[in-house]
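User: For my dataset I need records formatted as: sequence, then structure tokens, nothing else. Please produce one.
Assistant:
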Amino acid sequence: MALPALGSFLPDTPGADELLDAFIDWSLAAGLELYPHQEEAVLRLLAGENVVLATPTGSGKSLVALAGAFAMLAQRRRTVYTAPIKALVSEKFFELTEALGPANVGMVTGDASVNGDAPVVACTAEILAQRALRSGSDTAADLVVMDEFHYYGDRDRGWAWQVPLLEMPRARFLLMSATLGDTAGLRRDLTARTGRDTALVASAERPVPLDVEYRETPLHVSIEQLLSTGRAPTYIVHFTQREAAARAQSLTSLRVLDADEKAAVKEAVGGFRFDTPIGKDLRRFVLAGIGLHHAGMLPKYRLLVEKLAQQGHLKLICGTDTLGVGVNVPIRTVLFTQLYKYDGRRTRVLSVRDFQQIAGRAGRRGFDTVGSVWVQAPEHAVENKRAEMRAAGDPKKLRKLVRKKPPERGYAHYDDKTLTRLWEGAPETLESSFDVTHAMMLNVLDRPGDGCAAMKRLLVDNHEPRPRQRRHIRKAVGVFRSLIDAEIVEVLPEPDASGRPVRVNIDLQDEFRLNQPLGLFAVEAVAVLDCEAPDYGLQALSVVESVLEDPMAVLLAQRDAARDELMTRMKEQGVEYQERMARLAEVTWPKPEAEFIEPAFDTFARHHPWVGHLRPSPKSVVRDMVEHADTFNQYVSRYGLKRSEGLVLRYLTDCYKALVQTVPAAAVDERLAEVTDWLGGLVRDVDSSLLDEWERLRTVQEQRLSGRVRAV
């Protein structure tokens, strides 16, 4: 059932009381009676206070955010709604569009912009942070909603949640998360910076209570019990994309749906185009009532799984812990396959916040009276216990149990006591995570006024402890000198008409950015290349690729393909086994221009000590596609990357943005321009699902307004 048009409830006098009454009237018309904590949060927000909304998952935080956006719209003010991942941004964009109308809502993710000048904009946290760095207190936002605010403590991305708090004192803030921990210090700081009281709303009870169980049965037995006892839909949590995909494949042998349910899901899928290599597998999964959801999938496939889950067609969904980030996939049971993960540096048991964030997805408001959280005991512990039960009363079998099955490699110990600690514990207090980059420096220096003074203030007036602030200051000095040496920044003899004491080089294109940590090296390295060389365009492309993050699934597939080819050739030539093994060990993925890039960087690093441990990583992904004239599907098939299509698309997108934003316009020859245009078109053609969905919503809204569709 469609929501009533919220715009039709706008009061004639947009005061706080009138706005609250209008929003309550709308919510009642929509069948959404406000909980006491929601009403308190809305009251505080409309009264002009900042609000920290730390209530459980499923308690209606998004409705509070919608009330804030509604109030700003009525007062002709601007709302920015941020989220940590593009999937959640797009979901909130569609929700806001449904309620407020497509003319009033936009979306900006860095890859795509839809109606970006609208009075209500959904965007990634990094987008707002970059705007705040560039415009400071003049950033165009009167209300800032920061969803999943616990990302403030993320070691790599937390800066994007902190910067708006530091740079936007005129805005009103709504900070939302189910797992914030102690926020007393954060609230005091926010009040001091904005001059507004900051209210904590955290007393809500969970609308759907959860039962928690530690399972010492094999995983397939647990899944069958969940299905037979009516505890579906179930989200089966894995911590790698490969494990999630393999699990979905293994579950197709189960009878998940009956004949009528299979017919219903087939009708719901309709003419959806499963037109990439993973599509055939995914179609088989969803028609069997099994979903797959992880960041390695194309957005259109994740969106399909989310829609089918919302319609009740999927009983089992295999995915990674990314679903804990608020994406609206209604589930009754969360089943953890384990309680540890590799976090990019080490294998560790989940934190209280990690666990509660994922577990909180269980229990569907309006559908379930209780949700379930099941946690599988370690596989080796389950097998050893089963062996003990089989050997009970048999001395011979008991003697054989001296050698128990050991844990798998990369295991971190946990047991039922670990589960109790994670379930009952309070989330860890958020710690500041801040960093200085070239992109940050350029954004601040290029803002109107004294950007140098603004940068100094940012370095000493953030949430970091003093020792880390000193480290950031030293790095900032080195970054600034690098930009001066590269003539990207110029110190002016006197401030310009906008009061800037420095100038970001006006010869660079408007889109110029240094968003990669080693973007400055790419600029300097491209400048050294011979632009008259016949392969200059490909050389410049390789330099740019070398400063991008490694898409390891792609690179390892390239290495394996090269090894297979070499092995075949050596066997044909009769090369001895030992020599074959030695030569295979030396094979890696293609690294074009490495003989230029690596010594060039050594020279660069001597003059720019701030680079620390960073180094370029020569590779050939886009260049490989260009040289083989591959389409997206051909490239994915050639290297067997169907389980990593989303990763491939993200890398291609990052490379396109780097080519547009990092290579100075004067350094772009005809060949490089052709590659850039081709790459941009390929990225847009692979997945346009978000734009297609927005167009559909806009059409529906226009039909409503013209009276062809009745609003409920």
